[in-house]
Amino acid sequence: MSSKPGAWRRLLPGARWGLISVPYFWLLLFFAIPFLIALKISFAKAAIAMPPFTDVLYWVDGFPVVKLRGENYLYLLGDSLYINAYLSSLKIAAISTALCLAIGYPMAYAIARMVPATRNIALLLVILPSWTSFLIRIYAWVGILKPNGLINNYLMSVGLIDAPLKLLHTPIAVYIGIVYAYLPFMVLPLYTNLVKHDHRLLEAAADLGAKPWQAFLKVTLPLSKAGIIAGCMLVGIPVVGEFVIPEMLGGPETLMIGRVLWQEFFNNRDWPVAAAVAMVMLALLIIPIMIFHRSRAKEMEGRLS
Amino acid sequence: MNAPGRVSKWSWLFLGFGFFFLYAPMLSLIVYSFNESRLVTVWSGFSTKWYGALMEDEQMLGAAWISLQIAFYTACASVVLGTMAAMVTTRMRAFRGKTLFSGMITAPLVMPEVITGLSLLLLFVSLSNWTGLDFARGMTTIWIAHVTLCMAFVTVVISSRLAELDRSLEEAAMDLGANRFKVFFLITLPIITPALMSGWLLAFTLSLDDLVLSSFLSGPSSTTLPMQVFSSARMGVSPKINALATILIVSVSTIGVIGWYFLERAERRRQAEMQLATKQ
Question: Is A213 in CB contact (< 8 Å) with chain B?
């Protein structure tokens, strides 16, 4: 009701702030402040106590003393395990995002060109898997890829191989799982973008002598940039911190930082190191998250005006 | 693309491949849930015994009940908070801290759950430590984590509906003397009801499915269904999980397809009515 500025205050003083403050307070308390707490605890030291870490802030003769220990961060830097885990998470996220884009773009393109009735059914078919359990869909791949699983049984029964291939607990299995689970998140924003394109632009390009692939590269692809960015961020950012897929489909050598954080927390019970791992991950992801936020804000603005 | 119907053979082939990739694994789960053998992927005959075994698994059923409760309360709270957040982002002029607000409402969409789960746990532990009160981990803490995640998704669904909504309806009601509350409850809310329903369903399925947040925030007596499934799936494949998967896939798809059908029909009817109204 931006058309009548001030109307909120005039009609119902306080209603505006009431509406803002409830979700604002919730997000501040349960989303933003927890990061600050985690940042603080990443400077503490693990201890056998409850909670299992030392105090960063304590009182000496009535004065507050803040003791920040950089040990956890030095420890992350000093142990190649952590650096390798970060690098390999970024690599896996980049490759699987590219794979999702390569499969998802043609799918979104084909759906966007259908007649509306078929289009809606095709769209439903893309979304439907993401409604059913993520965990169970990853579990399905264990049955398909394991040594006596569906693929190996089939290949052995037709005589192509004599001994089962090692498919499960390999990097390939991790890529399959990620692409499988995240593909709908790539297709949807691409579809939303592509379906809005004006086909007359392509006709104009054809009239001016462009071949279909030239028209695609010069018209469709640049116009779908926003969709590509949104899709890549929706896939790439969460994959960096993925835990379930590398844990279930990857081998012990599949290093991913989400898995390392999980082990630090649940197995080693070293909460401060886990917090430091999370904070470094957050620092790596903050720029992609801001790019994602900007692309979403721009899209909303376009729809509101 | 406004030139519908021009889907080339290659596109159909690609779509077919894409859908095969998406659906074949789920179909294999369903088929082998009726397998007699304990070796999940070696077919030895039709049987429904694993469904019986699942029904006797007290731990699994208890976890399912906990998950359903959390998902129900999460969906309700997320729709309320998500609607408020969507009204703030689409209907309000800039206010101090709006950038932070819109950042906090989009970031959960992509933030890795290991980061949010750990941070939220550390918040509750610190709160207990400072206040002396007991913020024990359990269903309530899981619910808080789920609501924080799901309200972001609900906000996306509802604000895209609000952005499409014809403002003149709201403005007309206001010109006729209705106040903001009246306009919202009599005009806006009925129009966005389909979006509220799909937001509710989305939040429900997201909550029912979550493993990572729940693992960080659960206490001794609040093991959720995904946690239970995960710990038994870690031991290897089990026909019981296939049976559970089949029940989940079939019920979620049925509810999803029915819900989608009705929403689609309501949407079409609304558009037809709008067209009629503008013609007159």
Answer: no
Q: Residue A3 — very low, low, confident or very high, per pLDDT cuts 50/70/90?
A: very low
**Which residue in B122, B147, B167 is closest to A275 by CB distance?**
B122
Interface contact A296-B106, CB threshold 8 A:
yes
Tell me how close the Cα of A84 comes to any Cα of chain B, in angstroms: 18
Angle at which helices B239-279 and B189-209 cross, to 10°: 170
User: DSSP labels for B179-206?
Assistant: -HHHHIIIIIHHHHHHHHHHHHHHHHHH
- Indicate the DSSP class of residue A69: -
Paired strand residues for B23: none
Using the beta-carbon criterion (under 8 Å), do A41 and B42 form an inter-chain contact? no
Per-residue pLDDT, averaged over A101-125, amounts to 89
Disruptive mutation site among B37, B123, B185, B265 for chain A (greatest number of A CBs within 10 Å) = B123
> First and final CA of chain A: distance in angstroms?
12
Residues of B (118-147) whose Cβ lies below 8 Å from A: 118-120, 122-123, 125-126, 129, 144-145, 147
Tokens in use for A198?
Answer: 């004006």
Nearest alpha-carbon partner for B119 in A49, A213, A282: A282
The answer to whether the complex's ipTM is over 0.90 is no
Characterise B219 by phi-psi region: left (phi > 0), alpha (psi -120 to 50), beta (else): beta
pTM over 0.95: no
Chain A: residue whose CA lies nearest to B6: A113
Contact between B79 and B209 under an 8 Å Cβ cutoff? The reply is: no
Q: Is A299 in a helix, a strand, or coil?
A: helix
- Rounded to the nearest angstrom, the minimum Cα separation between A78 and chain B is 22
Q: Could you give the CA distance from residue B143 to residue B146 in angstroms, rounded to a whole number?
A: 5
Looking at the complex, report in whole angstroms how far the Cα of residue A184 sits from the nearest Cα belonging to chain B: 9
Would you state the structure tokens that stand for residue A164, as one six-digit string? 């089962």
The identity of residue A124, as a single letter, is: L
Give the pLDDT confidence of B30-50 residue by residue, as tens digits: 888 888 777 766 777 788 888
In B150-165, which positions are buried (b, 16+ CB within 10 angstroms) versus exposed (e)? bbbbbbbbbbbbbbeb
